[in-house]
Amino acid sequence: MEKRLPHIQTILPGPEAQKVLALDRQFVSPSYTRDYPLVARRGEGMFIEDVDGNTFLDFTAGIAVASTGHCHPDVARAIARQAETLIHMSGTDFYYPLMARLAEKLAAIAPGDFPKRVYFGNSGTEAMEAAMKLARYHTRRHRFIAFMNAFHGRTFGSLSLTASKAAQRMGFGPLLSGVTHVPFPNPYRCPYPHSPGACQCDRLCVEFIENQLFRTQVPPEEVAAIVVEPIQGEGGYVVPPAEFLRRLRELADRHGILLIFDEVQSGMGRTGRMWASEHFGAAPDIIITAKGLASGLPLGVMIARADLMDWKPGAHASTFGGNPIACAAALETIRLLEEKYISNARRMGDYLLERLGGWAEKHPTVGDVRGKGLMIGIELVKDQKTRVPNPEARRQVAERAFEQGLLLLGCGESTIRLMPPLVVEQHHADFALDVLDRTIAESER
Ligand SMILES: Cc1ncc(COP(=O)(O)O)c(C=O)c1O
């Protein structure tokens, strides 16, 4: 069978795309961050076709959402079947089997060898709001500790935890009080001075909380939860050292603080395990996920230790959260992930990382390549010695890649992230890396 590749047949944006852009410019909120003018009409597997008939290879998965690829036939069938049966009845006030069945499944696959219960919302930020509210409700403590460069969402609670770009917070203060941000262990940009090869930021970042923060500013008895992305997403696809989450777990346990893992982006098989935290051998008290959970239908969940869920009826709910169609899509997504796509993510992630192995030697602007599974970051810098971020190179690379039929997105200050659907095959990976290799070389000229 012939292997499908992208095909660009108009100048970009094409004539139909231009019409949509004009309409969008007039009527849609200008707060969105579109890096290049892709106007999508149809999706299939790894590909997006635009309104002018151009096809693109999608290495963004619609921001890490289309885990089973675009419009996977099994997912589409599950959605269609459910749409003909029951679209909505609100789990807030009524029962339906899919919500209970999905909760049972999520409780079974979430990390931690203890009983769990599940709260349903519609997005990552809603899942985080629920986690924060439950943590406060259960502990009767009000403070949170979060990490610099973290992204947890954009509603007021989760925005108070978010600290990846000032523009996301500017103009919205005052935010929730009682949130303190501490350094995240980033081995490429270690927050603590050290001699070469002797970085110990996982230990030092945790010791900072214990020895500095708790002694001088934040009484640990007032901290409801520590909130962390096991691998930072929007902040730059930063993989912490292996011991970090275990050390955080110990710290939290010492002080009766809850540990919340935000796996909105890193969960649902993206890293080659169901949860990124599995790579680090630590389990949270509360885990949230969204993006890849329902292959594109809006669904965000908060899964907590059952004994924490002592809140009373009326304490928290959402009209649409966990609607039957999203639940049907999620159950089918999880089935597919478990059956074949998580192992594919592992295999293809290894392949991509292996091919990217020598890039820092051959490209003077490639500062760091890092990641797990299909959550891979390539950090571009002005030069490798100073490691000054190079957002202009990243912008150029994303734009040129788009012109050649490859969809990419950035994260952090100047990192390109590779987050294709988990259905990606080797020839897709080869195409993407060839385009990237070329466009990075062009930007270096
Ligand atoms: C780690 C993480 N948490 C939370 C969110 C917020 O999710 P949503 O945009 O669905 O509200 C995101 C979105 O990018 C995320 O990456």
Identify the notable features of this structure and list them briefly.
13 helices, Aspartate Aminotransferase, domain 2, 7-stranded mixed sheet, 37% helix, 2 domains, 15 strands, binds pyridoxal-5'-phosphate, Aspartate Aminotransferase, domain 1, globular, alpha/beta, 4-stranded mixed sheet, 445 residues
What does this structure look like?
- With 445 residues, the chain is α/β, with parallel strands linked by helices.
- It has 2 domains: 15-64 and 357-444, Alpha-Beta Complex (Aspartate Aminotransferase, domain 1), CATH 3.90.1150.10; 76-337, Type I PLP-dependent aspartate aminotransferase-like (Major domain) (Aspartate Aminotransferase, domain 2), CATH 3.40.640.10.
- 37% of the residues lie in helices and 16% in strands.
- It is built from 13 helices and 15 strands.
- Strands 4-10-9-8-7-5-6 form a 7-stranded mixed beta sheet, sandwiched between helices. The chain has a 4-stranded mixed beta sheet with strand order 1-2-3-13.
- A hairpin with a 4-residue loop joins strand 2 and strand 3.
- Helix 4 (97-109) packs parallel to helix 10 and helix 12 crosses helix 13 (426-444).
- The longest helix has 33 residues, at 324-356.
- The model has no long low-confidence stretch (mean pLDDT 97).
- Pyridoxal-5'-phosphate (PLP) binds at residues 123-125, 128, 151-153, 229, 233-234, 262, 264-265, 290.
